[in-house]
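User: Here's a chain of 234 residues. Predict its fold as tokens.
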Amino acid sequence: MKKLLFISLIGLISLAQAQAQNKPNAFVEVFGGINTVSGNFSQADYSNASSGFAKAGYVLGVQGAFFFGGNLGLGVTLSQSDYGVNTMALADGYREDFDVDEATVASKHYKFNNLLVGPYYSFAFGRVTLDLRGLVGISAATLPALRVALEDQSTFTQNKATATGFAYQVGAGLRVPIVKNLGLSLRADYANTKPKFVVAYDNINNSSGRTITGYNQPVSNINGTLGIFYQFGK
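Assistant: Prediction complete.
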């Protein structure tokens, strides 16, 4: 996936350089969209401690960039990514482990608050601008609490955990003006981070059941977003 993205970006740069007519303008943008998940973070194998049980989610944020009198600029993105938890798969595993007829798992969502900065390489084709970017920064992540309830009315909790890790993102997007200074953007990005969570439990008095002491797996996603931007200078 990473190699394909790199080759695609090189191809886009070569094409854009040949066709670009104008210099890009600075902008600010609000955006939202969908996040896919991959790797162990998305797996729902109860017997595998690396499984994250994450489901596809959404991303919201604000971003912008300014340019140094040419195609090269500096951008910043502040965003929050949100992923659901596959509680049904967890409940099925706990039901078998504890040999009960019913088990339920309640959970909120994974959340990642991201601050990323890095270079933009952008090309204006008349009124349309192509943005290519590579960003790095930090991601403050939250692993949600899991409350497990069994049919004998016993309950235990996997406590909420937080961690901060290095994050990066690469992608491309189009900005298209709709009215003076305002327009719509369409973007696709690959993002990755790897927070190191320390996990603890409350009220777990049985050696049965899935328990983990930590979680340190890559969180990789491809997101597609739609944004509204304000463009300066035109």
